[in-house]
Amino acid sequence: MSQYFHHNPPVRVASSSLFGTASEALYARFKKIKRKDVECQAFFRKVLKNPLFQLLMISTITSNAFFMVLGTDYNIRYKLFRLFEISEILFVSIYACEFFMKVYVEPIKYWRDGYNLLDVVIILIILIRYSLRKIKGRHYRYLHIADGIQSLRILKLISYSRGIRTLITAVGQTVYTVASVLTLLFVLMFIFAILGFCLFGTPEKGDLDNWGNLASAFFTLFSLATVDGWTNLQEQLDKRKFTVSRAFTIIFILLASFIFLNMFVGVMIMHTEDSIKKFQRELMAERHVTLMEEKQMILRNQQEAVNRLMNTQSGGGKNFTELVEEFKKTLRHTDPMVLDDFGSSLPFIDVYFSTLDNQDIVVQKLQELYYEIVNVLCLMLEDLPKKMSSHSSEFMN
Amino acid sequence: MAQEQGHVPLPRADAIRSRLVDTFSLIEHLQGLSQAVPRHTLREILDPSRQKKLMSGDQNQLVRFSIKPRHMGHITHSQRMLSRLQVRCSRRPPLSLWAGWVLENPIFSKFIIFLIFLNTIVLMVEIELMESTNTKLWPLKLTLEVADWFILLSFILEIILMWMFSFSLFWNNAWNVFDFVVTMSSLLPEFVVLMGVSGNSVWLQLLRISRVLRSLKLFARFRQIKVIILALARALKSMTFLLMLLLIFFYIFAVTGVYFFEDYSRSTIENLEYNMFFSDLLNSLVTVFILFTLDHWYALLQDVWKVPEASRVFSSIYVILWLLLGSIIFRNIIVAMMVTNFQNIRNELSEEMTHLEVQYKADIFKRQIIQRRQNLSPEAVRATSHRKASKDVLKPKEPELSDSEKSDAETSDAETNDAETSDTEKSDVETGDAEKSDTQRSDSEESDTEEGEAKGSDAEQDEDGEGQKKSSKSKVYSSSSSTASSSSYSTFLVDFDYDGKMDWETLVHENLPGLMHMDQDDRVVWPRDSLFRYFELLEKLQYNLEERKNLQEFAVQALMSFEDK
């Protein structure tokens, strides 16, 4: 097994457990497996990237969605029953084909992409419906739930549209903050739910509908947080003469609705700004890079042309410098050339020469400083041998 | 060209050479491709004396135009038409020119605005008088009708004028299309009513509605409203994908809702308020929208729970999930995108302002440089003759002295001038070194009071100076008092004086980008051979500088390894 480690230098994770080493070795072995059906794989890869195929998929998904819309009406479903069945079989087979093709082309890397996982989930949902119908019979209570979930098939469209994908990646970065704010809200609601249950949910005097058990307490609190119909709930509490209910409700509404739910807005604004700025910066950097590359290309072409001219000796052995000298002779003083680039404009010349003069002065002063240093050092050296000679004379004596 | 001596390739020198090659199209010339040399500019040809000279020289001269793109700004359609040959050669100006003149006339546009307001007022009065059958008001009603027709006809006339001006450009502008649609849609009911359709039919209502719509034409006239509407349209455009995603979610939840609440829709229990809310797809869509706006969702949910067959779990999951996803998360995403879009628009508008400011600063910088160069050249000549090492500070006390005035710097303390006394560029720099004994200064010339127009830049530099008070470079600009050794560089031993608190380098660094990006409306006319020589010399200069640097390094090394032998 150890030879696989030598073959794969990028595998750097040194795991200490047996399972780790075993999975590493497995992974390495998988990577080493060469597929024998390279041409078939390449063909399917080409098919998958073909725009015609993508168009086919988009139209399939759209017509599936349309049929689902039609299928919500019972009458239409009754009349066009056969059409619905056939189209259903067609759609499911197309989805399954796409899934199998993609897995065939890239068996390992397929599972890393999020949108492929979405495809797998949708196929599972289709399977759930089918299997539920088969296993539990046609009169199972929850059959229509499985039918309802089929509407998620339209999410497959997202992977075919670049704009929505960028939007989701941009928005998806805010998902952690959103989750944490939601968790905070949940904790707050939990606290207030327990409080409310204890205060208002007692069996004798309390409002059992809304505060009787934890679930209804949660619902009531959510209704307060979204400030929908909360005056009715408050009325119920008032009818039962709870004195503290007003304070409770108002405090909770302030906390949850005014502060928390608007904190959402603030957090989203911040993150959207950040991601848009980052996106713009990346765009500018890309543009800058391409511009620089183009400029370099032009410069390089020019250099090559000049070098070529210099190297080729054409027409009587004139080399480059002589040609240039001849060209210079054709220039006349009275010919005007109008330039508006910065390098030959007057401010540039002024600035440049002033800077050069500055540089000269600085160099000059630096030199004088050096002279001074050397001067001082020489003076020190002069002092030193006297002492040395006196020392050495003492020493010798 | 000095490249054959085996020099180290310098990127700057290469850049200058490529600039030379580019400007003179050297490669094409040397390959014998193009012989044309631009000899005259357009200005010379337009000059009548020069033109006569040209014509007298050779009457069959061919003129070749080589166009250097100039930043002319926006060229309007009427300007373009004025330069067309058929317009210039015809006897009378074409109708489109006259139409353009009328349209751009301020009197005409004010008249149209007045008509729009009049339309609104007429409409208001008409609605008040509509139902009354008072016969005394009949002349008033007649005048209102006439005014209405007059307004309509003048709007149509304006549209016809715009068509005469330029038919194809009319349709490119969205505001014009909007005008057209509104006017046409108000034209149709008028005709129908004129034909005598009976009194209270739907046509009359349509008529009034279309008359009201005419007031919307106001939006195109005022610039502020246009800006706001354009900003809104841009914000919406950037949110298209978000809205598409929202539509997808609406679809998902609508279809799911129909299936989830089947039992609820079909139940026979009485007194269900929201029974029809999920009955078919359209109702379900409306209900999903109602839930999106968080209206009566708890009542709906409690109503659903009244039906025992409907599963509580799934219905509450459905409602809560949609509320969280749609109403809370999506709505806030929309708000966030709108805010960032408006911020972007505001940033763009302020960028224009900063651009103008940068231009202004670059202008001032240019003026400074020119004045400085003018100071230096007389100074450099006189610096060799008088040289005294003075330690006093001679501050320029007269604020009128604009340019050529040099003062001496302080000796040891880091003291700076007051910003008020500093003229354009003359105040002292701080030295950070206390070791330097003497400072040799150039003479402080109290030249005659030359009036400079640097008053404006005074204020600017005062501000700059104040701002830069803290950031001083610790460069040593004081030279030692060696009198003899510096005679070789005498011409350049001039102490530059700096404005405010900035020294040269920071000044250049800050203002150079602005200078470079300025809108160049002043271009330099070079004589051709001088330009060639200039580029050549600049390239050679780079090589020389490089050589000098290397020599300096050698000298320093030799000095440092100086041993007492």
From TrEMBL, chain A:
GO MF terms, alphabetically ordered: voltage-gated calcium channel activity
Major place of residence: membrane
Topological relation to the membrane, as annotated: Multi-pass membrane protein
Keyword Membrane: yes
Ion transport domain mapped to chain residues: 51-271
A Pfam family this chain is assigned to: Ion_trans
Gene Ontology CC terms: acrosomal vesicle; CatSper complex; endoplasmic reticulum
Keyword Transmembrane: yes
Keywords: Membrane, Transmembrane, Transmembrane helix
Cell location: Membrane
GO annotation terms (biological process): establishment of localization in cell; flagellated sperm motility; sodium ion transport; sperm capacitation
Transmembrane portions of the chain: 52-71, 83-103, 115-132, 175-202, 214-233, 245-270
Matching PANTHER family: CATION CHANNEL SPERM-ASSOCIATED PROTEIN 3 (PTHR47131:SF1)
Name of protein: Cation channel sperm-associated protein 3
High-level lineage: Eukaryota, Metazoa, Chordata, Craniata, Vertebrata
From TrEMBL, chain B:
Keywords: Calcium, Calcium channel, Calcium transport, Cell membrane, Cell projection, Cilium, Developmental protein, Differentiation, Flagellum, Ion channel, Ion transport, Membrane, Spermatogenesis, Transmembrane, Transmembrane helix, Transport, Voltage-gated channel
InterPro entries membership: CatSper2 (IPR028747), Ion_trans_dom (IPR005821), Volt_channel_dom_sf (IPR027359)
Listed GO biological process terms: fertilization; flagellated sperm motility; sperm capacitation
Membrane topology: Multi-pass membrane protein
Region (Disordered): 376-487
Bias (Acidic residues) ranges: 410-422
Name this polypeptide is given: Cation channel sperm-associated protein 2
TM ranges: 107-125, 146-171, 191-209, 241-261, 281-301, 313-339
GO molecular function terms listed in the Swiss-Prot or TrEMBL record: calcium-activated cation channel activity; voltage-gated calcium channel activity
Catalyses which reaction(s): Ca(2+)(in) = Ca(2+)(out)
Domain Ion transport, residue spans: 106-348
Keyword NADP (UniProt): no
Primary location group: membrane
Family (UniProt): Belongs to the cation channel sperm-associated (TC 1.A.1.19) family.
Source organism superkingdom: Eukaryota
Pfam families linked to this entry: Ion_trans
Composition bias type Low complexity, residue spans: 474-487
Task performed by this protein: Pore-forming subunit of the CatSper complex, a sperm-specific voltage-gated calcium channel that plays a central role in sperm cell hyperactivation. Controls calcium entry to mediate the hyperactivated motility, a step needed for sperm motility which is essential late in the preparation of sperm for fertilization.
